[in-house]
Specification:
4-stranded antiparallel β-sheet, 8 helices, 37 strands, 627 residues
Amino acid sequence: MLKKIRIINFVLIIIGILSISSVQSTYFHLEDDLQVNSIALFKKWSFKTEGSIDSSPLAIDFDGNGELEILIGSDDNCLYYIDANGELIWKREFSEQVNTSPCVADLDMDGEFEIIVGTNEYIPYCLSFDNTIKWQKTFGHIFFGTPAITDIDQDGKMEIIAGCYDQSTYCLEDTGVEKWKLYIGSIVYGSPAIGDINADNIPEILLPSENDTVFCIDNNGGVVWKTTIPESFFVSPLLIDLDGDNRSEALIIDNRKNLYCCNGLTGAELWRFEVSDDRTSSPVVADLDLDGELDIIICGRNGAYCLDLQGSLNWHNKEVGQVYSSPTIADINNNSYLEVVISAGNGKIFVLDYSGNTIINFRNNIGLDFRTYEYSSPLIVDLNKDGRFEIIIGSTNRKVTCLEFAGVLSSGIAPWNCFKGTIYRTSNLDSDGDFLDDITEVVYNTSIMDADSDSDQYTDGEEIFSQTDPLNSLDFPSWERLTPIIAKKPINWPLVISISLNVLLIVGFSAYYSVRVLKPRAIRKRFIAQSEKVDSKYNQQTMERLMKELSKKGEVDESSLMKKSRKLKVKKFKGKSDSQICMICKVSIKPDTNIVQCKYCRSLFHINHMNSWMLNYEICPVCKRNL
């Protein structure tokens, strides 16, 4: 009977283990790098605006308290300033809709950041973070593209670069005064990109125009080169160092399914990749797979593409579908590999891994009803400094939505966290993920590859937001970083139930085996060892006394052992030689030999043979009855 129970328990344990494995296989996906993907998205909060949102959000710590705030424009003529919990801090209403994405910088380097935003009333505004207008500049014509901000002339103050409908490119000083104006003879729709084409630490500007000409402009407003690329005026280009030689290359997309890579010094075409789409969004770059080379990611009407530095296709994800906005890049689960976050035109949020596999397809899982059919790109930041990223998106259903990751304990860096890279909108990479793109790192003289230049446990961007010195380890923000918390994770009830049942099964079996098998076996060993020394005349009395002593020590139940012990009695054999045999060894029992006898069938056994038998079985070898 005991043997059958053991077999049944063993089978149940095997079934339990297999059931756990099967449940796990439905919940986890094991990648080649052995990193477990079990992340999901859920809605954290949403904020309602009065108009559709085409503007892309950004985040900044204006008040230096360690938590980020969000800026986003809307077609209701308002710029919204929202805190990390989705509550309105203030809004600024203009006479026309906000048609550009806001950009932010400390223009005059006084420690306080300013906001630059454009509207359809031909005026870019400069606001302070308390919602007061510092200055405004009237162009006389609308400017469509989001401006870029950098210290173009290295005078210690920032300048604003913007293209305009009046066929000119403007450079404005921190006070709004026009520094220079370049007439290019063509309307500018796209946004300017900032880079360094000759490794002299002096930035150049790349700007597309309506007449199929792309201009490279120096810091004084002179044309370095221009090249003809048909229908390249809608999409914002990049001017970025792709191959690590400290000289920027130009990435330009036309409206005829082509991505061009051009020499930054001359504008000569290096390679061209034909996309199977008639319209694509602005490209982004990052080293997704940690191979030491940047990858180029673009999205269009037929999904997301990833190219290498030579223009060869690494992967193409068609599941994403139609996309008009630019993707963002971040290490969501802190495994060093980067993920691609895409706000698709079908109302879904996609998260792709470095190989292009879909990790998250948001609306299919949650069913949140929002649409993103226009051009608002996602923002990915750690709003409340708990060590985990959130995604903030604007949509055409008049909502700003914050999404939180489940199954993420901590996040890594975000080298391209918003539209055009960072809050400065230079269209450049933030290699170390400290909120300062590589062009802006040169302005502040901070490290491009080390997020914390002075090793004081605060990133360079956090220090600049808090008005402390990123190069002085004794000068750091007063706020304390939150201890990372365990991320919320959907409860997988089948897995929980399966594990619980199997734990109970194993514990129960262990208890049964210990009480019913191991402990009686040990007692029998002691009992038989003592009984062999007992004279046959007083054998039974001595055994009973021994059992009473054992029961007093709590080692055995007296009544059960007394009852069980009487079935086997140890005595001296008094019969004639060879008149009886041991039923185990089949050898004759000699007189005066210690033997045991089965109570039921009266069979005789040598005591040493019966000892060995009873170590493994609890039945009589002859009648098979339980002893």
